[in-house]
Write the structure tokens for this entry.
Amino acid sequence: MKTQQEMNSIVTLTADGVREVEGSPLWNDDLRPTTIEEHNWRGYHFAALWIGMCICIPTYMLASGLIALGMNWWQAIGTIFLGNLIVMVPILLNAHAGTKFGIPYPVFARLWFGSRGAHIPALARAIVAAGWFGINAWFGGTALDALIHSFWSGWQAVPMHTGIVFILFWGLNMYIAYRGPQAIKKLGAFSAPILAVLAVALLIWAGVKAGGFGPMLSAPSKFNTTGEFMQVFWPALTGIIAFWATLALNIPDFCRYAVSQKSQARAQILSMPLTMALFSFIGVAVTSATVVIFGEPIWDPVVLLTKFPPIVVLIGAIGIVLASVTINIGANIVAPARAISNLWPRRITFGMGAVITGLVAITMQPWYILENFGNYIFGWLGTYGALLGPIDGIAIADYWLVRKCRMHLTELYKTDGHYSYRGGFNWSGVYALIIGLAASLIGLVIPGLGFLWENAWTVGLVVSMLVYWWMMRGDQSLLGEEEYARITAQN
């Protein structure tokens, strides 16, 4: 029986396939494969999604963290650009699976960890996303708090004023997220051009006002030797990679709506690395200009904005809200909401998962993570990079090396199907994750092997990829070409 059909390299369930699994406890409307009609995201939507997510306060201040650690401006921007080029590779590799088979990340994870074991990588991604959600909500809330104060000096006398704005901003994020992925598509298409125009306008203002970009662009590196630079470069590069290592895992959540492989791949390659590098440069250049204009470097765009007339402050506030909401909803809600929905598909909807994510985010105390750049780059980014790198490696090895881009869609929704393995767990995935994580952790405990932890994402990815590939060779869940052709109608 043909349970799935392939048309223009996109696989969807047939009517027989839907009837076979729609009553399964692993099926709901948020986790099912997309229909051919739902493959309606074009290249512009993916470019807009990335531009909207990249133009945000964390990106603006990312280069400043590297400069504070001793880099000059071009070393910082080069590190950011290189890190994003590297992470684009797993993004595109995992995006292929989402586009071809129309499945979200938690369902994709059932392939490598089993129907029950999929909760391990899904919840790992969810916890990181919840942390990021809290960070961006705190960024947005404190930004609005400062902007309100610039209009009304008595605002700071209001008890718990920062907490009030933070909760209100958190609530706005929750409202939009509850409406689902199609609302995210519309938000990205709306906000991306506005944010791009505001970013360029800020750069032009700084250049004209300062007559150039000031002394910071001519400031030398603080490192005297290549060795000194490398001691900061490698962990910083891991941190930059980790910045979007989250999306490298759950990019299928978005690409499952793509009209074609070509459109999503081309749009992502052209939009993400360049936007990250250019907006980070804008942050450095504008800050450099503030030394000339105001006599001191102003890294925080919110503090800078308060120096402008009220009408500009209002426009800037709108931009900050758009930027913070766009990245928060796009990057930090979809994955955990689906992961939580996957815990109990017949009862928990995407909207309920989004609300639970927001509540978890508050408990993770984002104000502490942002207390200093050490916590942010080496603590937060570096640590979760070590966790997500092995999962990225397992996902890539499973889809490309082990399964050769073939899967049986209906079996993903069966509690006793091919992808349930033993008791719902694929122990090859579990062991590969543990070994990949242990490989980088060795760098924390053995003198002389610190480079393993400094490159934790890369080390974990490569080690787990190789271990998983070796352990899964010849697994009974693999589909051969003949069996794939037997269940797949070609249109």
Notes: The domain at 39-388 is CATH 1.10.4160.10 (Hydantoin permease).
